[in-house]
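The authors assume throughout that readers already know how a fold can be written as discrete tokens. For illustration, here is how one protein appears when written out as sequence plus structure tokens.
>
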Amino acid sequence: MHLYRSHKCGELRKSNVGETVRLSGWIHRKRDHGGVLFIDLRDTYGITQIVSEGNAELEKLRVESVITVEGEVVNRAEGTVNAKMATGEIEVVVKSVTVQSHADVIPFQVAEDDGAGEDVRLKYRYLDLRREGMHKRIRLRNNVVSSMRRRMVEEGFQEFQTPILTASSPEGARDYLVPSRLHPGKFYALPQAPQQFKQLLMMSGFDRYFQIAPCFRDEDGRADRLAEFYQLDVEMSFVQQEDVFAVMTKVIGNIFEEFNDFTGTKHRVEFLPNMKYADAMNNYGSDKPDLRNPLIIRDVTDVFKRDDVTFNAFKGVIEKGGVVKAIRAPKVADRPRSFFDKLNDWARGEGAVGLGYITLKDGAGAGPIAKFVPAEAQAELNKAAGLEEGDAVF
């Protein structure tokens, strides 16, 4: 039998009952039931319950101590089966124990979430990464990267590692600099992205390249900014934009399908549409729109061009070559005047002259500029902006 283990802690089943096994892992939980000690033994593969009676050494050990146990696999007693555990039908009756590592008092719980702060979790990162949620995330990252590699190779890509210590090639952020020992007074730069190197690979005839590339950018951290991150970096030769879309839509779409239930609940995957730049700017006002936002910008210039519409503020903009855009706000027509005034104040604070609006009540327009828009023009506005009863348009 192997010195440390014959099985992993998530491996034993009813079919193993009667076998003598050896397990190694961390003490996850301890429960003393009148001299009978129950221990949940944990490794990265799962948890197995072990049972010991009268073992003074085990009783003294703290949680997170590392042990190797040898014992017999038995069925759990009736009424004690744990259906939530893969090994929940069996337990191991301990015959011998070897202590591999004694744990001190730990600064926060591993088995439970005790609300430990970020500072202490980072200080004891090796403990934090033992916690179930963090452990799953690290393994998820490994599985996603492995899936990326497999899928890219299937699409004919070759993986190459590009240099880390290189010359500066700014790409929108400050470089991290590393002083050179061999060339005093000079510095290497850590790459913000492997842009030049992958282009050299294309010039060298490798056709399709990819890399899970480390990128370094010396900038303040934000929700979408990190000083150090990894990206799926890709380059292709003799292709058009549609070829890149076709390959990457397949690869990334399949990855989302494969891992869309990592939270424990399977979700329906809707991959991003192939949206034109002009449509993104016209409909969302951004070249990277958040499609979870249901508000879409509509062009209502033709409505305010009409001869029977007399709102001169918009007509003046149109005559100078400008356009009039509108956003539908569903079911806010009954909001108090203060709601609309607050939005108007916000718009002025952002540099606009003001924020005009019309509400749709009982099929007719209402609000400060509604009097300049006759019924026929209002009907056209409703259609252009997608207005329904009880909505407002800004």
About this structure: The first strand starts at residue 20 and ends at 33. The chain is about 30% helix and 25% strand.
